[in-house]
Amino acid sequence: MHVRRMSTSIKRVKMIFSVIASPSRLEVLKILNTKGPMTYSELKTLAGFKAKKESGKFAYHLRKLLRQSLISQNRAERKYMLTTLGRLVLNSAKQIEEQALLESGRLFVRSSKHKLEEFNTDRITHSLVTEAGMPVELAQRVASEAESRIYKFQTAYLTAPLIRELVNSILIEEGLEEYRHKLSRLGMPVYDVIEEFQSVGQSQYGLEALLGQTASAVMSEYLLLIQLPRDVADSHLSGDIHISNAGHWSLKPDTLFVNLARSSLKSLEHQGKYPFLPTFDSVKDDDILRLTGINYLLVREAGREIYYTGMTDMLQPIESQEVKKLFTLLSYSYPQSQDRPKIIFEVDAGKDRSMEELLSGYLEYCRSTPSPSIGLAILNPRRLDKSYYSHLVNILKSNGLILFNNDSQMQRSASGSAVENFTRAGPVVLDSISINLPRLAFEAQNDAVYFRTKTTLQLENAVNALKIRRRLVESNIKGGLLPSLNIFDGMVYSETPYMRVNLTGLWEALSIVEPDAGMEELGNLRRETINTVDEHLASFKDGGDSFCSTLITDESSIRFPQLDKDRFGRSKMKNFSSDRYSQGLVLSKDSMDNKSVIEDANRLLKEVKGGVQIRLVIPLHDVDSILQSSIESLDFFVSYPDIRVCKKCGYKNDGESIQCSVCGGPTYSSLTL
Length: 673
What we know:
By secondary structure, this protein is of the alpha/beta class. The strands form 5 sheets. Strands 7, 8, 9, 10, 11, 12, 15, 16, 17, 18, 19, 20 and 21 form a 13-stranded mixed beta sheet that branches. Strands 1-3-2 form a 3-stranded antiparallel beta sheet. It has a 3-stranded mixed beta sheet with strand order 5-4-6.
């Protein structure tokens, strides 16, 4: 009995092998494995039996597969599908095929196209010539050396990344690093990808953030390896300068100032450029839908912030529920990523006839949103009717973002970037590059003149980087990567961007250069340093270029001191009380009781042409008492409510609460300007 059963199973195996011996039948198994269940006609076409006279031949092959249970038929759906046995047989056939290739004595490569291809030295030569721009003779010599080393590996098969790494090591040994940069594979180590999965999964962002950050890692490598000159890239890596948001630094501008004047808004037409969106003509009577569509497109082409002017004129008259609807629609169409830009709408307290509806609608939006992504810029807040202060207090207590600007000559974004008032299309700002002033001060050895000289020399690297960035962004606009900046040129003008260099650690640098100076002397030195910087930046003006300095916030405030501790030692930096260099100006409730601090803040706004971010951190229980006096005394500030949001329930807790007072969940600070 045992012999008979064994004989039957051997016979069955022979039958299966005879069935898959046919290339046509094996192709049917592969198609079903790849495509899933298919109808007779679909399977027949994909298998290559297109002519009517081949129907009988195809039916014959299908019967063979059915009889051996390699495929089955779902009669209800009239579809054929691969069985478990069929999948097992197909995998076995694939393994046999690969092993036969490997034992043939030839080398095979698992390519990036997910194919097993025979190793060919000419492919290395071709890559060196086309990708790296290497002369043919030199490329052939490098490829020959790579082939020699590969055959010494005595490995069964290779991978494309392994061959590329080997070629790159040869290029380094030969002193051909210029070609090695161009041949480098951009990407992330497996460990880093796993870390990204975990960190993004634990954050308030989702899959879009994961994809954005992995793509950002590739683009930042490309920027430093290919797009920037070696001296600029080295300055960034060493910590002399810092390029913020390197993942999209070369792709899109930082801040867009957008004019929503009714005349430009009504004339917009994106035609067939965005076939997945309704044309603006189809919603011409609904300004809220038009603005939502405009923001949906622009928000993907700005790195840090979009500042809208003309909102008051566009939306009058408006009801508070309509305002809430606008903010809600904008939020739902907003990309969920860590580097998404802030959205700020400007309203003029001296002109707005619908402030009640606007503030009421924004308050309702803030109350229903744990971390509001949209803020308001209130111009001329000293002219605001006192009856509206209760709305402002409640907005701040609800984690709303408001900036107050009493400077009638300048428009200032939440990041602090300043531009002169404009009546037509708003300007584009390119910055996100900072220079390390404390390092220059250490190297100047208490010599103020030498410090300013070193600062001007360091500015050249920053300016060169910004000029390259301007050309790259302009190329992206013309090449179609930033189509909205082309379409909306009546609202935002990108052809002559404003370019700014950020001064990180100004206060620490001044205290290093003049350790015994009083406040008045430090103020004079600060003014001289800023004037020197702006005068030198003005000398780089070329055509429509416009350079000046800024004091805004970016991650260089943390990165620079870490690098400087490694360079100079902790003992030399022991006088600094924190691990962060100063950027902009941070004021507290106690600051508002000091008249000289307020006067100095207003002076600083006039000294720094590109803008200063002044943040007023307000504890929740002090909002009522401090808000009005701050508006009356400061020319510009960004309200920064000291709130921590619960990751579980979204409840807004006091800034000192590490755990939620409602559910006990962990909290996070939602405003990181």
